[in-house]
Write a structure and sequence with these properties.
InterPro entries: Enolpyruvate_Tfrase_dom, Enolpyruvate_Tfrase_sf, EPSP_synthase, EPSP_synthase_CS, RNA3'P_cycl/enolpyr_Trfase_a/b. This protein is an alpha+beta fold. Helix content is about 30%, strand content about 25%. The protein has a 4-stranded mixed beta sheet. A 4-stranded mixed beta sheet has the order 4-5-3-14, covered by helices on one side. A hairpin with a 2-residue loop joins strand 12 and strand 13. The longest helix has 13 residues. Bound molecules: shikimate-3-phosphate and phosphoenolpyruvate.
Length: about 425
């Protein structure tokens, strides 16, 4: 479905974004392993996390809707062998976390996904999980899904992440809950730490020492309610929209401000963005607060490569900001973006060119020369990727824009375009 967004003259207002996708996936998984009933409060109900809900139901958890919340009756560590394959659809996080979790379970499991997910690398979890004792096979020797997995009989290993990936770290920590001995993940570069925070929330074994994260076999643990903060990655679209649109001020409330997620704020600040944020709650668990963004005269910057894992899903919307900035923005460290839902480096370059922006693309970097062609009538090509659809809808907003296959946004944010239009209407 094509969607037309008229030119935005001003964006004004405040909003709450849907629940955090990473925390929702993990909350559903851990509550399904817990004993008794617990609620996930304000979870994300979108394509990716509904795939997790269905997978955990197929593994025997009882999950029911309660208004905006979900009530989960867990299995108490032993999941059920499902009768059919588990379809992770578009969700990379789900497939990799399930590979880890099911490696620790007795039984036979098959994981598949949509065309995009079946092209994404799975050897990054298959190799270390095999070293722990799991049997995992798949296309091209286990590099691609469908994956066939037989779990049980694990032993702990120490594993240094070859690429910064919270999904791989989390897969190994979940497997480690069922392994003999200690499982240690060493992350040379920090990545999002939601799994570690949730292990603490549920009282699961966890020890951290600098870059080393350790876990070991758990006993049964009781369910506990969990509040899901607003998703910073979803908030990021509105922040950049306000920065690049004249006469704008947008405030996002109740949003997660976990420092392992908010690298974008630092980069936007360095670009001259008028941005303010404040942590208001969540001392233990996840920090939550408010972010305000106002129209700003942005300038190009050289992004610090070490920040990329702390803003890995925000690079498309950073490119949207760079398109409207004065001067050049250089973004290094992008090799992981090549293996997301789409090749995001290529998708970003394509959509920037549609705005008349000059862009140079390297194997793992982008150089963006700020300057949108006046009078451009951009058409966004999402490449079957939710973040690309939303980021470039934002990039074209001051001009008016046509978004092809806009429904891809429903993977992480079903109400995105309505929420965006709500800010115009008030403008
Ligand atoms: O652990 C997670 O919830 C996620 C980790 C990141 O992926 P990688 O672990 O592949 O970097 C991110 O891109 C994804 O959207 C969610
Ligand atoms: C990369 C993403 O998700 P996943 O890896 O779970 O598909 C994303 O949401 O941008």
């Amino acid at each position: 479905m094509d969607l037309l967004l008229p030119p935005a003259k001003a964006l004004r207002g405040r909003l709450r974004v849907p629940g955090d996708k990473s925390v929702t996936h993990r909350g559903l998984i851990l509550l399904s392993l817990a004993e008794g009933e617990g609620r996930l409060l304000y979870p994300l109900k979108a394509g990716d996390t509904l795939s997790t809900l269905r997978a955990m139901q197929a593994l025997g958890a009882e999950i029911t809707e309660e208004g905006p919340h979900l009530r989960v009756r867990g299995r108490g560590l032993r999941l059920k062998e499902p009768e059919d394959v588990l379809d992770c659809q578009n969700a990379g996080t789900l497939m990799r976390l399930l590979a880890g979790l099911l490696s620790g379970q007795e039984g036979f499991f098959v994981l598949t996904g949509d065309a995009s997910l079946r092209r994404r690398p799975m050897d990054r979890v298959a190799l270390p999980l095999r070293a722990m004792g799991a049997q995992i096979d798949g296309r091209e020797g286990g590099r691609y899904a469908p994956l066939a997995l037989r779990g049980g009989g694990l032993r702990g290993i120490s594993y240094t992440l070859p690429v910064p990936s919270a999904q791989v770290k989390s897969a190994l920590l979940l497997a480690g809950l069922f392994a003999d001995g200690v499982t240690e993940v060493v992350e040379p570069v920090p990545t999002r730490d939601h799994t570690e925070r949730l292990f603490r929330h549920f009282g699961l074994p966890l020890e951290t020492e600098g870059p080393r994260i350790r876990t070991w076999q758990t006993g049964p643990f009781p369910a506990r309610d969990l509040v899901v903060p607003g998703d910073f990655s979803s908030a990021a679209f509105f922040l950049v929209a306000a920065l690049i649109t004249p006469d704008s001020e947008v405030r996002v409330e109740g949003v997660g401000l976990n420092p392992t997620r908010t690298g974008l704020l630092e980069v936007l600040k360095a670009m001259g963005a008028e941005l303010e944020w404040e942590v208001l709650e969540g001392e233990e668990g996840e920090p939550v607060g408010t972010i305000t963004a106002r129209s700003s005269a942005l300038k190009g910057v050289e992004v610090d490569e070490g920040l990329i894992p702390l803003m890995v899903d925000e690079v498309p919307v950073l490119a949207a900001a760079a398109a409207w900035a004065e001067g050049e923005t250089f973004i290094p460290g992008l090799s992981e973006l090549r293996v997301k839902e789409s090749d995001r480096v290529r998708a970003i370059a394509h959509n920037l060119r549609a705005l008349g922006v000059e862009v140079e693309e390297g194997p793992d970097w982008l150089r963006i020369k700020g300057g949108v062609r006046p009078g451009a009538t951009p058409v966004v090509e999402p490449f079957h990727d939710h973040r690309i659809a939303m980021a470039f809808a934002v990039a074209g907003l001051p001009l008016g824009v046509r978004v092809r296959e806009a429904e891809w946004a429903t993977i992480s944010y079903p109400g995105f375009f309505e929420d965006l239009k709500g800010l115009y209407a008030a403008g």
